[in-house]
Amino acid sequence: MSEGNALKEFYAGLAVMIRNFDLVKRYWKWEVVFFAYTIANTVTMGFVGKSMGGGNRTILYMIIGATMWSYLSVLFEVLAETVAWERWEGTIEYTFMSPMKRITHLVGTCSFAIVYGMLRTFLMFIIVAPLFGINLASMNMLATLVVLIVASISFTGFGMMGAVLPLISPEKGVQVVHIFQAFILMVSGVYYSVSVMPKWMETLSYFSPATYALEAMRETVLNGEGVGAIMDKLVPMALMGVILLPLGLLIFKWGEIFSKRRGFLKRNG
Amino acid sequence: MNYAVKVHDIKKNFKKSGKIIKALKGVSFEIERGEIYGLLGPNGSGKSTLIRLMSTLLYPDCGKIEIFDHDVLKEEKIVKRMINRVSVEASFFMKLSAIENLRYACGIYGFPFGKSKERILRMLEQVGIPKSRFNDPLENFSRGMQQKVAISRAFLTSPILMLLDEPTTGLDPKAKREVQSMVKDVVREHDATILLTTHDMEEAEKLCDRISIIHHGKIVAEGIPVKLKEEYSAKTLEDVFLEVIGVKIEEADENE
Predict the structure, then answer these.
(1) Residue A90 above 80 pLDDT?
(2) For residue A138, is it within any domain?
(3) pLDDT for B143-159, tens place per residue?
(4) Do the beta carbons of residue A157 and residue A150 sit within 8 Å?
(5) pLDDT tens-digit profile of B169-179?
């Protein structure tokens, strides 16, 4: 790619990212509603942890589950619903007929999702932590950040694969995305250890990057483990990212061709 | 001959509820550079399908479309840089302002906002959007105003082929006249080729250098409006349509 074209793609990706922030700004009332819901859910989980006994450690165990899941959900939903959202707004044809490469489109969306998700999670933690007098003295900050980055890459691939569903099925795609998301929540050990599940469910949990992300996060926050100690979680998560990202992009491209053949690339209504 | 568009034997079927709908049954025509070409037909005649094929949003079952000698299927990215479109629905992020929408539209064509900002403001002024409304959400704009912003969006990327898909449908007579005169102005200024689909015969007569009538996925008549009227001994294009199709366009719409 020439320098000029690379620059054009950069501006295109930036435009996608800025547009999404513009939408957050304009739909701020909905943002407040969703944020309040997430806070309430996290606080509830914190109290569930408190009622179980075990003090700071159990509370943190539950809160890590809630905050991490909230972050991963944002990543997944923003990406998976990017097509559905544009179909609903009516701009899908204009975005897809622009010369922007599909990878630029998706990277722009991912970048927004990561920045937005991290800001939201950070803000949520600041609000929730004082309620429980959470002590983060044992947290390994660097290792926690590494977990977040690797988990983001891995989940982005998942999101791209999810995004193909509303592309190939305008009517049922979004519903299937939510079923898929609920299934990941169930098998990934968000609020419990995966070892309590039946064997077949536990086996499935090893195919979800969220399982490794949650386990690694708990070890860095609760036990203060460093990067070296969580390699057994980071490596499979990174491998999933390496496989899922290009696979997600490939599946999305296939979905786009399918939609263009069937005439699905159009607005709702 | 210098052609902007060459459409050769395009066929397209859709599957709907287990039935095959033949949207285009072998459509061929050419548009010369700098021409305003009108595609006239009732609802469901295949006009929008053709526009979507040219916009790279749809693949034909067979046939070939070339835009400035570039194959729409094989050279999609080059074609995308040459075209833009105004559709019957304004198709914006309605909660975003005109500036926010146009900033996005320029951005995805690779224009940095810093450089395009001035052009966006100038274009919005040119189409008659008051400065005080630039930052208002588009959902608060009238349909006519939204359509003017849509025309700005399309011309901001300097397309050499503009696809206007019923840009005045649903507008009140005043807004319709304004949009029509704006199309003429911007065409003159930007030196673009235009493909206009409409079922408004008066509009076609006013704007188009050449027209074709499409019905049930087939081109059934083509020519310069004056010559078509002579050929069918008709006073208006509506009479030509009646002669060719056998019913008035409104009736053809109802039958779809």
Answers:
(1) yes
(2) yes
(3) 889 999 998 999 899 89
(4) no
(5) 878 888 888 88
- For the domain bounded by B3-255, which CATH number is listed? 3.40.50.300
Domain assignment of residue A168, given as a range: 3-262
Distance of CA A9 to the CA centre of its chain: 24
Q: State how many domains chain A has.
A: 1
The contact set of B with A (CB < 8 A) is 14-15, 49, 52, 55-59, 77, 80-81, 83, 85, 87, 89-96, 100, 103-113, 137, 153
Radius of gyration of chain A (CA): 19
Q: Do B14 and A12 touch (CB under 8 A)?
A: no
ipTM value, please give it: 0.91
Q: Which of these, A182, A200, A199, lies nearest to A190 by C-alpha position?
A: A182
Give a yes or no: residue A106 inside a domain: yes
Whether residue A11 and residue B112 make contact (CB cut-off 8 A), yes or no, is: yes
Within 10 angstroms of residue B188's Cβ, the number of other Cβ atoms is 9
Residues B144, B175: contact at Cβ < 8 Å?
Answer: yes
- Residue B16's pLDDT is 83
Instruction: Give the A-side interface with B, CB within 8 Å.
Output: 5, 7-9, 11-12, 14-16, 18-19, 22-23, 26-27, 89-91, 93-100, 105, 257, 260-263, 265-267
Considering only residues A15 and B126, tell me which one the structure prediction assigns the higher pLDDT. A15
In chain B, what residues touch A9 (CB-CB under 8 Å)? 110
Check CB contact under 8 Å for A260 and B107: no
Q: Is the pLDDT of residue A118 over 80?
A: yes
- Surface-to-core class of residue B26, CB atoms within 10 Å of its CB (0-12 exposed, 13-18 middle, 19+ buried): middle
CA distance A108 to chain B (A): 10
Q: In the predicted model, is pLDDT for residue A1 greater than 90?
A: no
Q: Which tokens hold the place of A188?
A: 């990934």
Q: What is the pLDDT of residues B12-26, one digit of tens each?
A: 999 888 899 999 999
Q: Do A16 and B107 touch (CB under 8 A)?
A: yes
Instruction: Give the domain ranges of chain B.
Output: 3-255
- Considering only alpha carbons, which residue of chain A is nearest residue B157? A98
Kindly tell me if the per-residue pLDDT of B255 is higher than 70. no
